[in-house]
Design goal:
It contains three helices and five strands; from the N terminus they run βαββααββ. By secondary structure, the protein is α+β, with helices and mostly antiparallel strands. It has a domain of 72 residues.
Length: 107
């Protein structure tokens, strides 16, 4: 697994969290989004362009726009779709940790 110990964690609590995450990502700064218990992290890794990981619970280097838009649609969170565009424009990629309910946005 990758080391994310130096990346700030943001507990997702709706639109306020989305604005904070957008500001962070807009400046090409990495961020970990800790998603709520009921958040669904199921994605099609081939459609999202994810690389293989040693762990089946982790998907790495996924295309930011495709991944975040898919999660936004599945979870009915339009803020994630907006974040998807900003992450794409900033050249970021996304890692998903399904076992920890975390979305890691980084370069």
């Amino acid at each position: 697994m990758r080391d994310y110990s130096n990346i700030p964690v943001l507990n997702w609590e709706g639109s306020i969290s989305a604005k904070k995450a957008m500001a962070q990502v807009h400046h090409a700064e990495p961020v970990i989004l800790q998603m709520p218990e009921d958040f669904i992290l199921a994605i099609d890794i081939s459609v999202c362009g994810c690389e293989k990981s040693r762990s089946s619970a982790q998907h790495i280097d996924c295309h930011a726009a495709d991944t975040l838009k898919a999660l936004a649609e599945t979870n009915r969170m339009p803020e994630l779709a907006e974040l998807a565009e900003i992450a794409h424009e900033a050249g970021q990629v996304v890692d998903i940790e399904t076992d920890n309910r975390r979305i890691i946005i980084h370069d």
